[in-house]
Amino acid sequence: MTMLTAPSPAALALAARCRRAKTAADAIIATAAEMPAAPQASAAGGEVTLVVHPASLADWDQWTRMLGVRHVRDMKSTGSAMVARCWYAGVRTKLVGVGVPALLAEAVRNA
Length: 111
Hints:
The chain has helices at residues 9-31, 57-67, 100-110, and strands at 40-44, 47-52, 75-77, 81-88, 91-98. With 111 residues, the chain is of the alpha+beta class. The protein has a five-stranded mixed sheet with strand order 1-2-5-4-3, covered by helices on one side. The longest helix is centred in the N-terminal third of the chain and has 23 residues, at 9-31. The model has no long low-confidence stretch (mean pLDDT 89).
C-alpha cells in the first residue's frame, strides 16, 4: 500500500504563485483588446511574460504605462528587444517589446 504525503509548504506556495500568475496573464489579455500589438502571454514559475511587437514608440509607451513601468532603469535592451520588469496585480511581470531598440535607434536618427 502506497502512503501519500502532503505537499510541502514550498510546493503549495509555488502552486499559489503560479495560479496568481495565470490569473494576472488572463487579466492582461482581457484588457489588451484596446491595446496596440496584441500580446502573447504566458505564466510560468509564478511570473507573467508578455511579448509584444509594437509598431511605434507610442505603442511601446502605452504598454509600459498600462503595466506600470515607471522608470527607464526598469528596462534593458537585448539588442533585438527591450525587456521591462514590473509588477502587475501583485505578480512579477516581464514585458518583452520585440523591435523596440530599432524603433529607438530610428527615432534618434530622425531627431
